Amino acid sequence: MNKYDTEDIIYALSTPLVQSAIGVIRVSGKGCIKVLSTHFKSKIDLNKAESNTVIYGRLENLDNCLITVFKHGHGYTGEESLEISCHGGLQIIISILNFLSSLSFRQAERGEFTFRAFMNGKMDLTQAEAVNELINSKSLVSSSMALNKLNGELFKIIKNLTDKITDFLTNIEFQLDYTDEDDLLYADFDVNELKSVDNEILKLLDTYSVGRIYSEQLNVVICGVSNAGKSSLFNYLLREERSIVSSHLGTTRDYIESSCVISDIPVKLYDTAGLRETSDVIEKEGVKRSRDLIESADIILYLIDPKNPVIDKRLIEDKRCIFIKTKSDLIKSGLTKSGLIKSYLNVDTRIENEIEQKCISVSVITGDGFSELFKAVKDKVFSNLQKIENVRNGEVFIQSARQKKSLLQAHNGLNAVINGYENGVTMDLLAIDIREVLNNLGEITGEVTSDDILDRIFSKFCVGK
Questions:
Q1: Distance CA 128, CA 114 (A)
Q2: Do residues 327 and 440 share a domain?
Q3: Do 255 and 309 have their domain in common?
Q4: How many domains, the chain?
């Protein structure tokens, strides 16, 4: 990776550049302790400090700091490094960063600290990717997924698969080296071992559909007629007043979006304009944009006003829809009656009755019905809820498209080996295919890498990591 010079002493701010209680600046590289010790006044010489200890002192005339010392072989990067904890005033942080630059330390590139940890054997590539997944996790479930991999669970699985395939390859290579061509014994090999490995790979591939959901955000669109309570539900789910709530028709003229978590699932939530016919040019454009959002939604929360219980025919049989009757508190109090649902256009009464039965009644005033709604969202997203429990039980889930691609290539390669074996393909050709499968798995852990792969992975990191 040419843009990363591992001989340099690098530094970067690891906390946000905002006014705060403290700021943390990371420094790494051979000789950094000796250089900084001449500018740090303390009762304990940084050079004599034991690894993984914290020293209090004054850094030049810039600030009174705590410096954590990591000797070579210790700490995050595996090389000599320091972490400076200073007061979080912006001017203090900037002054220290400028001072480090004056010492000929270099500003770190994105992900360079983790890159050095990988190069120094402190972590494999699955753990390096897990660091970024953990930083960018959008829910507790996605954090759990990342932590499992950061603890080396995915590496252990891939290593186990690689060992089994290597044993198979070793047997083939032994035959090729020490057996006459006419005496090669295919019967000495148990192809079922390769089939078992392939099944394990398929299990990992199967987890990607769930892992992707937690690493990305689902598009959840709230829609319905005007005054159905869309903005109220939007604000309730966000726990903040983002949308204007009004009894006037057409208050929401364009969609509003925000991120939140529903049933541990990270979502991008959209509040849309009421679906109705209107002559207002601006509102008409808002309705059009609402319909465009509905087209691209992963889940549609269709709200039905008990005072005006109608539903758009175009969405009646849409499998993405969860139908919700709002304002259940008004119905219970007798302030309004809940009429039968009617569609904008005439449809089979049976279908309308089915929707009536499927409707979830909620109230943003009392909170009634939301546990049922959250369960319905999870049911809509996952056909096999046991997978979600497996996350909490420590099962490894694939979130990286790169890892999925390599696993798929390994699966296809193993299928070619198995089919070739069963159809009498020569062992030397089988050996070539098996080595390619090992390369595919090696790309996941980083045993087989290229500058292009490393650049794509670490360029997605933040600078301080």
A1: 6
A2: no
A3: yes
A4: 3
Same structural domain, 251 and 368:
yes
Output the pLDDT for position 202: 93
Residue 335 backbone phi and psi in degrees, to 5: -75, -20
User: Is residue 155 within 8 Å of residue 435, measured between CB atoms?
Assistant: no
- Quote the percentage of the chain above a pLDDT of 90: 37
- pLDDT beyond 50 at 131: yes
Give CA–CA dist 430/421, Å, rounded. 7
For residues 120 and 76, give the distance between their C-alpha atoms in angstroms, rounded to a whole number.
10
**pTM for the complete prediction?**
0.76
The whole-angstrom separation of Cα 137 and Cα 11 is 25
Token pair recorded at residue 104: 């000929």
Write out the DSSP string of 389-422.
HHHHTT------HHHHHHHHHHHHHHHHHHHHHH
pLDDT the model gives residue 55: 95
Contact 302, 253 (CB under 8 A): no
| Strand 310-311 versus strand 342-343 pairing type | parallel
Would you tell me the crossing angle of helices 112-119 and 451-458 to the nearest 10 degrees? 140
269-327: pLDDT as tens digits: 998 876 555 555 555 666 667 777 888 888 999 888 877 777 777 777 788 889 888 88
pLDDT of residue 355: 72
Q: Please say if the pLDDT value at position 403 is more than 90.
A: yes
Shared domain for 414 and 441, answered yes or no, is yes
- Among all chains, which residue has been given the structure tokens 């669970």? 153
Question: Domain for residue 459, yes or no?
Answer: no
Query: DSSP class of residue 108?
Result: P
Q: Are residues 238 and 176 both part of a single domain?
A: no
Which residue has 């193993």 as its token pair? 414
The pLDDT, as a whole number, for residue 346 is 46
